[in-house]
Fold this protein.
Amino acid sequence: MLHPPPLLDSIPLDDAELASLNPFTVSLQNGFLPLSPPPDVLPAEFQDLENLLQRMPIRTASGEPGLLARYSLGSVVDGELVDFSAEVEKYAGDKRVICALYRDYSFLASAYLLEPCYERQTKGGKGYGLGRERLPAAVSVPLARCAEICGFKPFMEYAGSYALFNWRLVNPSLGMDYGNLRLVRAFERGLDSSSSEAGFVLVHVDMVRHSGTLIQGALEALNACEERNREKFDKGLIWVVQAMIEVNRVMEGMWKKSRPDDYNSFRTFIFGITNQSMFPNGVVYEGVSNEPMSFRGESGANDSMVKDALPKTLDTHIEKYLGSSLRQSAGGRNAGYPSD
């Protein structure tokens, strides 16, 4: 007997109920996108962290050079940032806030660890050199706790931080139209919606907004198999195909919104630790583990549309040949969706 994954037929309207759910619980309406728009400003208790994140990008929202542009993020983190772990615990029951904190701490962690590599690149050095080998406790401890609550790895991931939980709506009444999307956090010039960094991330968000139709079609096809209903099966596959046509249409516009020549200007900050020359010995998360830790970098190839929905519905070769590699870096996003 076929067992479709647990999902929500409708998204709760009660705010308290919505806050208690993993934001990446799969729904027929939003598919693999979060149940509601991600928080774009942290609670007041985290104002110092919020200020630091706003000062961090190479080009800030005001257009001025930020801490990364001056290669000074590391010294500011080391000298100014305090451990907000106690404040994190106060919000343990609000998964939206915790996931936003996970997003923000993972952005800060990647920027901190890879800042020396960015400096080497911009100063004409050969290769990326070495990243920082230790992540200070003020970042690593709350990051690890937020990751634990949300079911992620304590490092930047595609869904929970870099892309699918990193957007806001300019005008909520206009919905998920691409022109209404903006980034919450960025490394380079991504707070400018016309930048290549913004385009690179938001095109992924724009693709995944069609995943609700994909899931509806997949479930229709799965249920049809159980019922031995060919007409219903064909209908489900038509929905799947229609969804993927839209996904591919959006993807084909990637390089119009994100110029290929600009990619390396923000690529440095989305590297992982595992098997990277910048981290030959891994990274010690102070206050979390005395042994070096290692995690893969984020990648759109981890998207559940690629890794879960299509292979589990159509029995493609993706799962057979790529499943184990993708699963290592997939973390716990898309709650309720089976991993095997």
Observations:
- The beta strands are 134-135, 167-169, 181-183, 284-285.
- The longest strand covers residues 167-169.
- DSSP finds 14 helices and four strands in the chain.
- The radius of gyration is 20 Å.
